[in-house]
Amino acid sequence: MFKWNRVLVALIGVPLLLFVYAGEDFFRINLYGLPMLIFTNLVIGIGTYEFYKMIKISGKEVYDKFGVIVALVIPNLIYLSKINYHLEEVYSFELITVILIMSVIFMLVYRILRNQIKGTLEKVSFTLLGIIYVSVFFSQIINLYFYGTMLPLILQVLVWISDTSAGIVGVTIGRKFFKNGFTEISPKKSVEGAIGSIVFTGLIFALFIVIIGKDKGDITNEIIIAFILGVIISIVAQIGDLIESLFKRECGVKDSGTILMGHGGILDRFDSMLLVLPTVNVYIHIILFISYQFEIY
What we know:
The chain is mostly helical and 297 residues long.
């Protein structure tokens, strides 16, 4: 049966997402990254709520309201550190570390003041996991946006390519060569689909470099690097997808939510990006650190 709600969400959501990612560059307007900030807050706020809801469905307890509030503080502080010159020397990593430490202290002190013992480890641990998994991970999109406004868009497109090619290859030849796959975590995922996704994502990114660099002489090295990066992004994206599937199976739910009408919840749509964003950000920091230490420019 044809599902119009899925089409409607795609028709509205994709253009909005493209505007958030590339609107300022395309229309040549300076909105100081506010569309990205608003988008990030929406994803993190709803995503953290969905995560805690899954936890509670599984019968465990969390400080969901407190966790959502803390989760929303993180992207806004990162944003302020990027646009406020008074905070330009304060690294977002340090801000996040302080917030996480204070959050744990607050929850533990609260338990002591309430004279509560049972469930302390469960509540504090799962609340902190939600903050880190959703907010800390996805907030890295703001860091990447200020590194280069097109960087999040490129990553999102590569994730879409990875996800789509995995589905196509999986449906076509899935389970024909590797019988088990990831049946326990995600029954629909297959090894063939994963391998196909890795290859196609690398090839398409390499082809993209060929197209935009066709008038720039010898770009062999750039093509090789693009293929390798495409492969890495696909691997990380698929692991991110499997991590969210792992959480859903543990909690006994099919989708993280229903807000996207037929597309599941926010976490279902951005599960791959949740791991891709921090991975790329860490990679950039490592490269910058090595360049600084060894004076490579």
